[in-house]
Write a structure and sequence with these properties.
By secondary structure, the protein is α+β, with helices and mostly antiparallel strands. It has eleven helices and 16 strands. It has two domains: 2-212 and 330-411, Aminopeptidase; 215-327, Alpha-Beta Plaits. It has helices at residues 3-19, 35-50, 95-110, 137-143, 161-167, 198-201, 240-258, 294-315, 334-346, 362-365, 392-411; strands at 54-57, 63-67, 76-82, 118-124, 185-193, 206-212, 214-223, 227-228, 262-265, 269-271, 278-279, 282-291, 318-327, 330-331, 353-356, 371-376. Strand 3 (76-82), helix 3 (95-110) and strand 4 (118-124) form a beta-alpha-beta unit. Helix 1 (3-19) crosses helix 3 (95-110), helix 7 packs antiparallel against helix 8 and helix 9 (334-346) crosses helix 11. The chain starts with a helix and ends in a 6-residue tail after the last helix. The structure holds (2S)-amino(hydroxy)ethanoic acid and manganese (II) ion (2 copies). The site of one manganese (II) ion has 4 residues, from loops.
Length: 417
């Protein structure tokens, strides 16, 4: 078996071991700051230590492992991804990038490669934003863009982010000390499953990411009037759920018919005080809209908001529209992408470039550092789903390409930023 396949087997074994750590018995869920998250992070820290890295948990809760260059003044090259998950997740979204990244560093050590830069492996603690509905907490802290006001955000149980940081040994006031200063970044590299069907359909194991789509996360609160399901005539109701349902279908129609290279998703819908014999008085739902074109995203956001207001006006429902987060598109570094394309060719594969519809920790990092991402084919592009699957040979392909990339980087002198 080739060396890359053997290494891929070890990566897959660790992915499976990490996948066995979950806050839910029947599925994989590791959300920010929970006991299961900490247990999973401890596992990753163990593996980092076994590899000989200097490890530390920073204040927000990332686990970080450093391999120092012989040159003390060297810049830092970060290899990273996340170890938090969505609810009922697949096992590759995040952990593949962290554990393949660890393998690359083990290879640097094993091959005694002289590195002119420090290498830092980071397992980010909250890319998905499932617990506090705001993403990139870990990568924002490392990029120096963490907004302290976020620590007031509360989860479904009313616990604040600040309390969770403190509970887990972090200090919100020291978060800024965990950032890597802009002048100290050499670059950022993330291996991640594509989470889409392109590589699978084209039967290609890996692809180069050119950009990461802009996205908007919104919370809508529809307030009508709770009432008796048996007595209130249909034309006298202020049914918050029926209103939300019309909004959801109209939003889907907008995204489909508009062909505006836009995707729109309502992934969370919550009826306040639900009962089968009560007309829903209040409903809360999420709205996630994305486009690689920032202008299309903002104009679509306005159009969807106006459409929601019109539906609510017609039905006598009050609407609260709350912007949770808006991120610009992140452009990947052309210099590093050239090296990645070269590395793919050297590994014997056709280089393919694609835009990521999914968000990644590379987004906040791209504000302070050149970023590059290597996508890995996943079964039918399925992700955020326990059916998420990656073949061993594709992990081996990603390792082979990434080895080449690291060797090119060692020789490459990026233009001064
Ligand atoms: O939502 C996303 O795009 C990412 O998976 N967090
Ligand atoms: Mn991810
Ligand atoms: Mn994800």
């Amino acid at each position: 078996m080739s060396d890359h396949l053997t290494r891929a087997e070890k990566v897959l074994q660790r992915i499976n071991e990490l996948a066995s750590v979950s806050e839910d018995d029947g599925c994989i869920t590791r959300t920010y700051g929970t006991r299961a998250f900490i247990e999973g992070r401890n596992k990753v820290e163990q593996w980092m230590k076994q590899a000989g890295l200097q490890t530390r948990t920073d204040n927000i809760g990332n686990i970080r492992g450093r391999l120092l260059s012989g040159n003390a003044d060297a810049k830092t090259f970060v290899i990273a991804s996340h170890i938090d998950t969505v609810i009922n997740a697949g096992k590759f979204d995040g952990p593949l990038g962290v554990l393949a990244g660890l393998d690359l560093i083990e290879q640097i050590i094993r091959s005694k490669t002289e590195i002119p830069f420090h290498v830092e492996l980071i397992a980010f603690c909250d890319e998905e934003g499932c617990r506090f509905h705001t993403t990139y907490l870990g990568s924002k802290a490392v990029a120096g863009s963490f907004d302290k006001q976020l620590s007031d955000k509360r989860d479904a149980a009313g616990i604040s982010l600040g309390e969770v940081i403190k509970q887990n040994g972090g200090d919100v006031n020291n978060l800024s000390k965990d950032a890597i200063a802009k002048e100290d970044w050499l670059g950022y590299f993330e291996i991640h499953i594509e989470q889409g069907p392109v590589l699978y359909e084209r039967n290609i194991p890996v692809g180069v990411v050119t950009a990461i789509a802009a996205q908007c996360r919104i919370e809508l609160i529809f307030t009508g009037e709770a009432g008796h399901a048996g007595t209130v005539p249909m034309d006298m109701r202020k049914d918050a759920l029926a209103c939300a349902a019309e909004f959801i279908l109209e939003t889907e129609k907008f995204a489909i018919t508009g062909k505006k290279k836009l995707v729109a998703t309502i992934g969370k819908l919550h009826i306040i005080n639900p009962a089968s014999n009560v007309i829903p008085g209040q409903v809360i739902c999420s709205l996630d809209i994305r486009s690689e074109d920032e202008n299309i995203l903002s104009s679509s956001c306005l159009a969807i908001k106006e459409m929601a207001e019109n539906i609510c006006k017609k039905r006598g429902i009050n609407l609260k529209w709350g912007l949770i987060q808006q991120t610009k598109p992140a452009i990947c570094d052309k210099g590093m992408n050239k090296l990645l394309v070269q590395s793919i060719k050297e590994a014997g594969f056709d280089p393919v470039e694609l835009v990521s519809g999914a968000g990644h920790d590379a987004v906040p990092v791209s504000e302070v550092s050149p970023v590059a991402m290597l996508f890995v084919r996943c079964f039918k592009g399925i992700s955020h789903n326990p059916l998420e699957e990656v073949e061993l040979k594709d992990i081996a392909a990603a390792i082979k390409v990434s080895d080449n990339f690291i060797q090119q980087l060692v020789k490459y002198k990026p233009p001064v930023r």
